[in-house]
Design brief:
about 25% strand, TIM Barrel, Lyase, Ornithine Decarboxylase, Chain A, domain 1, 2 domains
């Protein structure tokens, strides 16, 4: 069925949709924010996964995109995105072969934190006749992957410089541990401490005549701090374009634009509403989605195929067969569950975007 032109109210459920006017305002707002801050915008697409949306970001002024997985980068490159950072470790002969074969089609750069991987990448790139850009991931408190700041990063940078086939492009970090701080001043201090470790390491590398052009970091929950810290060249915030409930909690300035269209399938009692969106449509364990136009929601819980709204008082307005919209709780954990995203303007479906990056786990 071709849903173009169909009223949202007639779209079969459950369906993931975006308010195009709000999305476009969010993109304009973020692009303008980073432009005013004098810093590049390389939005992370791990929660976007749609090349058509990536092209909207590029048209608004983004310098490139960030991907979490090599498979996502392949999807973006195939769709004509020319500047890509894979902000994750790409390990093993099979993946490294795919990575260097992607290099003729895009300026793809990759995060590294391991000497043997650097050597393997250099050998594969040399055999292919290409040069692969690498960005050292620095652990500044997230305690996930990454090289420790200071001398350990310098040592890896010097190895990269001495390895044919790879080119040192810069350093990156993710100060995501700062999001654990709910108090604004504590969050700011955590971000500043993290980025200070990164930029001090940049200075150390430059003092040893190593070329550091890219200094990358910042996410949708930290960009309002990180974008203004000295030494950064680009910010990776991407998910904020959706303005979901998680990013509302983090204080992003964007509007809620990403929603789920559902149908009321049962009204067992006046204080309970059952919808056809369960955890296969909206994940549980994250920030709870927000139902629109329903007062007094006490809880919203999900089983596989059902959403169960418990109300503080009786609701006689919503009946079986009525539709209900939910603002997505966390886009990163929601978009990849769906095959397509419906773009809606003035209540009508204007476009249907295939979510081409879903399922790209490798």
């Amino acid at each position: 069925m071709n849903e173009i032109g169909l009223p949202l109210t007639e779209l079969d459920t459950p369906a993931l949709w975006v308010d195009l006017e709000k999305l476009e305002r969010n993109i304009t707002l973020l692009a303008g924010y980073f432009r005013a801050a004098g810093i590049g915008w390389r939005p992370h697409t791990k929660g976007i996964k749609i090349p058509a949306v990536a092209h909207k970001l590029l048209a608004a002024g983004a310098i490139g995109v960030t991907c979490a997985k090599l498979g996502e980068a392949e999807v973006m490159a195939a769709a004509g995105v020319g500047d890509i950072l894979v902000a994750n470790q790409v390990v093993g002969a099979q993946k490294i072969t795919r990575l260097v074969n992607l290099r003729p089609h895009a300026d793809v750069k990759v995060a590294v934190d391991d000497p043997d991987t650097v050597r393997a990448m250099g050998a594969a790139a040399t055999a292919k006749g290409v040069t692969l850009g690498v960005v050292i991931e620095v652990n500044t408190g997230m305690n996930r992957s990454g090289v420790e700041p200071g001398q350990p990063t310098l040592a890896l940078a010097q190895l990269i410089e001495a390895t044919p086939g790879v080119q040192l492009r810069g350093l990156m970090t993710w100060e995501g541990h700062a999001l654990e701080q709910s108090e604004p001043d504590a969050k700011r201090r955590a971000v500043e401490t993290s980025i200070a470790q990164l930029t001090a390491t940049v200075d150390l590398c430059r003092a040893h005549d190593l070329p550091i052009d890219i200094v990358s970091g910042g996410g949708s929950g930290t960009y309002q701090i990180t974008a203004h810290l000295p030494g950064m060249t680009e910010i990776q915030a991407g998910g904020a374009i959706w303005g979901d409930m998680t990013y509302q909690k983090y204080g992003t300035a964007t509007e809620p634009a990403l929603l789920i269209h559902t149908t009321v399938t049962s009204r067992p009692t006046p204080q309970r509403i059952i919808i056809d969106a369960g955890f296969k449509t909206l994940p549980r364990g994250f920030v709870t989605p927000q139902p629109l136009g329903v007062a007094g929601v006490k809880s919203l819980v999900f089983s596989a195929e059902h959403g169960n709204l418990s109300l503080e008082g009786p609701n006689h307005g919503l009946q079986v067969g009525d539709t209900l919209e939910l603002i997505v709780g966390y886009s990163d954990a929601t978009v990849f569950l769906h095959d397509q995203l419906y773009g809606v303007r003035d209540g009508l479906v204007e476009t249907v975007w295939p979510i081409l990056g879903r399922g790209k786990l490798r």
